[in-house]
Design goal:
Residues 1-44 form the DUF2423 domain. It holds the Pfam family YBL028C_N. Residues 1-137 are annotated as: Disordered. This protein is mainly α. The protein has a domain at 8-41. 55% of the residues lie in helices and 0% in strands. It has helices at 8-42, 57-84, 97-108. The mean pLDDT is 76.
């Protein structure tokens, strides 16, 4: 008769399942995981070796060139960016027709949340009094 999740019969059945079915499964899993961790901990750690790399003249020259180019490239980019905005016009982005169509479809596919609320802007007027009826106050 009692069908709620708080009924005593359901509670006893759940506790019996936990102890007899899920308990051993959970214990076996924790045992497997602990064995795996013990095995990983017992393995010797790999020693980290620092590799000494001798720099050749070619690599030194390439490194200097990259440093020089990186400094000049930033300045050139800034000049190009600033040159386009001298007239004060804002940047305009172009969107493909495919992109516009995709956005439009996504917008139309949205589900609007419906609110079941009494509208606030309703004005109530007193009802006309019918003859023979008393007015409730």
């Amino acid at each position: 008769m009692a069908k709620s999740s708080r009924s005593s019969i359901r509670k006893t059945n759940r506790s019996r399942l936990k102890s007899r079915v899920f308990g051993p499964v959970e214990d076996a899993r924790t045992k497997r995981l602990s064995e795996k961790l013990v095995e990983l901990a017992s393995q010797p750690k790999a020693a980290t070796t620092d590799m000494d790399i001798e720099k050749t003249e070619d690599s030194k020259a390439a490194e200097q060139e990259s440093k020089e180019n990186s400094g000049h490239a930033d300045d050139a980019d800034m000049d190009v960016d600033n040159a386009g905005n001298d007239d004060g016009a804002e940047k305009t982005t172009t969107v493909s027709r495919k992109e516009e169509k995709r956005r439009k479809e996504a917008k139309s596919a949205r589900i609007d949340k419906k609110r079941h609320r009494k509208p606030r802007n309703t004005v109530s007027f007193p009802k006309k009094r019918q003859p023979g009826r008393k007015v409730k106050i």
